[in-house]
């Protein structure tokens, strides 16, 4: 059965394609994906021979996956330009630098070994979102392929072009000692060089490429990785610690005391710093992010606007592009910078550079900057089980109830709801800046619940109890993965 196509339909996710190789996809399946993607690119660019730049991460099987993907692309008429070993943002950058028509990056990001996948995009600086993924799935599974004659060529030395672009635009003059942790993922041959290049003193941690990931997955939300960075920061008396995921589009941050800083708070610090240079700017954040963005005195003084938008890197990326925002910040660690700071896509190393610039522009260290932010009490992300076929109806029902509570001026913990946002589930805010969020998860059968209060830990809990009470009354909620 070696010649039969294996491609699990569930591998077509909301923002990219991801499978366990060879359990859920085989090389013939990847070749079909290449044919589907090539057909889609030709349809959208209206070119018989569009140019597509491709790259792959350092996993042991990524090269063979890429070869099959290229075979499919070439069979439709695409001209493939192969960059070799890459980070996702390096492939995104190639579309601007080489003026290609589309991109495809073979990576499973921070997933465990055994996973593979492809991140792809046609419109410059953007990656596929739900509509493009559904179209690609339809073309691929129903084999609606265009036939053509493509070709391929190797692009040599592109790693240096990508590195130089980030280094030359971002020199700093302050001596910043930075721990750079890559979890033995592909960022190890990029991040240390680039951060040294801008002027940092770099302490490397697990930067040697090793596709077995001997210590932990390269994932800046992985507690093992964060603890290792924290220890290295303290042992070396470093100013900052950075952790990069497997394909280099996300960055986690540890302060000079060894404490993890949540990405929405880092985003707020960067936004504050940028607002002093670029007043009247727009910033986009996802609905799980801190409410401090909307009340921050520095952002308000500099006449900046914050837009809360749908969770998911493809959504935030598109919103930053559409609204011509200066930057976007997602709580998961995807940051987006428009010109003159970047090209609009998520690049973890550029995110680290912006943190270095923040320190370069300040007389204070990172822990002091964090302490300047108003204290808030925030829950972790909590996910109660809810069937896929019921979760969106549950959210609609809850939204109506919350709208009625606002209309009737019913108080929760002595607070009236003053604002309701429904771009992604329902996020409701109170007079004192406290808020609660309920949304449907994009990729698993569950809901997502978060609450935050700048007033007290007790109010944070009261808002959660209010949400949980509404959810329990639906009769459609199962166990939570965690609770406060």
Task: Please describe what this structure looks like.
It is globular and about 70 Å long. The protein is α/β, with parallel strands linked by helices and 484 residues long. It has helices at residues 27-45, 62-75, 88-97, 130-141, 158-168, 191-198, 223-235, 263-277, 292-295, 297-301, 313-322, 348-360, 366-372, 388-407, 457-474, and strands at residues 17-20, 51-56, 79-85, 102-106, 115-121, 151-154, 177-181, 201-205, 240-244, 251-254, 260-261, 282-286, 305-309, 327-329, 335-337, 377-378, 417-421, 426-430, 435-440, 447-453. The longest helix is centred in the last third of the chain and has 20 residues, at 388-407. It contains 15 helices and 20 strands. The strands form four sheets. It has a six-stranded mixed β-sheet with strand order 1-5-4-2-3-6, with helices on both faces.
The gross shape turns out to be: globular
Mean pLDDT, all residues: 96
Secondary structural class: alpha/beta
At CATH level 3, the topology of the largest domain is Alpha-D-Glucose-1,6-Bisphosphate, Chain A, domain 3
Describe the biggest sheet? 6 strands, mixed
Provide the domain count: 3
CATH superfamily membership of the largest domain: Alpha-D-Glucose-1,6-Bisphosphate, subunit A, domain 3
Descriptors:
Alpha-D-Glucose-1,6-Bisphosphate, Chain A, domain 3, single chain, 15 helices, 484 residues, five-stranded mixed sheet, alpha/beta
Please write out the topology.
Layout: E1 17-20, H1 27-45, E2 51-56, H2 62-75, E3 79-85, H3 88-97, E4 102-106, E5 115-121, H4 130-141, E6 151-154, H5 158-168, E7 177-181, H6 191-198, E8 201-205, H7 223-235, E9 240-244, E10 251-254, E11 260-261, H8 263-277, E12 282-286, H9 292-295, H10 297-301, E13 305-309, H11 313-322, E14 327-329, E15 335-337, H12 348-360, H13 366-372, E16 377-378, H14 388-407, E17 417-421, E18 426-430, E19 435-440, E20 447-453, H15 457-474
Parallel strand pairs: 2-3, 2-4, 3-6, 7-8, 7-9, 12-13, 12-14
Antiparallel strand pairs: 1-5, 4-5, 9-10, 10-11, 14-15, 16-20, 17-18, 18-19, 19-20
Helix pairs in contact: 1-2, 1-4, 5-6
């Amino acid at each position: 059965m070696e010649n039969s196509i294996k491609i699990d339909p569930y591998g077509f996710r909301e923002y990219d394609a991801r499978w366990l190789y060879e359990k859920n996809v085989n090389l013939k399946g990847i070749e079909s994906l290449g044919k589907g993607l090539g057909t889609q690119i030709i349809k959208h660019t209206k070119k018989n021979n569009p140019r597509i730049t491709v790259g792959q991460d350092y996993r042991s099987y990524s090269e063979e996956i890429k070869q099959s993907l290229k075979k499919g692309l070439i069979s439709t008429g695409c001209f493939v330009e192969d960059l070799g070993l890459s980070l996702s943002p390096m492939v995104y950058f190639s579309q601007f630098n080489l003026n290609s028509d589309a991109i495809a990056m073979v990576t499973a990001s921070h997933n465990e070994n055994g996973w593979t996948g492809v991140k792809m995009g046609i419109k410059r600086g953007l990656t596929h979102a739900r509509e493009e993924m559904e179209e690609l799935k339809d073309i691929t599974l129903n084999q609606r392929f265009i036939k053509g004659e493509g070709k391929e060529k190797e692009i040599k030395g592109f790693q240096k072009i990508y590195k130089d672009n980030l280094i030359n635009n971002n020199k700093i003059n302050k001596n910043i000692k930075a721990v750079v942790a890559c979890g033995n993922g592909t960022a190890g041959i990029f991040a240390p060089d680039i951060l040294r290049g801008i002027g940092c003193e770099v302490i490397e941690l697990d930067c040697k490429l090793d596709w077995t990931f001997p210590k932990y997955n390269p994932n800046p939300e992985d507690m093992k990785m964060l603890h290792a960075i924290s220890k290295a920061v303290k042992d070396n008396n470093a100013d900052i610690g950075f952790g990069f995921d497997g394909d280099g589009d996300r960055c986690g941050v540890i302060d000079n005391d060894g404490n993890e800083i949540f990405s929405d708070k880092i985003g707020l610090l960067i936004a504050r710093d940028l607002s002093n240079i670029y007043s009247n700017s727009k910033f986009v954040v996802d609905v799980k992010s801190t409410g401090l963005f909307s009340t921050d005195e520095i952002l308000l003084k500099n006449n900046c606007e914050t837009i809360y938008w749908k969770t998911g890197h493809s959504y935030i990326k598109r919103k930053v592009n559409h609204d011509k925002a200066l930057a976007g910040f997602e709580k998961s660690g995807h940051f987006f910078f428009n010109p003159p700071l970047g090209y609009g896509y998520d690049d973890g190393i550029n995110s680290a550079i912006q943190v270095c610039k923040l320190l370069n522009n300040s007389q204070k260290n990172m822990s002091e900057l964090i302490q300047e932010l108003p204290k808030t009490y925030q829950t972790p992300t909590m996910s109660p089980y809810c069937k896929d076929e019921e979760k969106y109806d549950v959210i609609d029902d809850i939204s109506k109830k919350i709208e009625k509570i606002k209309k009737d001026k019913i108080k929760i913990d002595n607070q009236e709801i003053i604002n309701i946002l429904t771009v992604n589930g329902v996020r409701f805010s109170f007079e004192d800046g406290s808020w609660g969020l309920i949304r449907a998860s994009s990729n698993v059968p569950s809901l997502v619940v978060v609450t935050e209060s700048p007033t007290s830990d007790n109010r944070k809990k009261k808002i959660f109890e209010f949400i949980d009470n509404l959810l329990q009354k639906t009769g459609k909620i199962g166990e939570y993965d965690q609770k406060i």
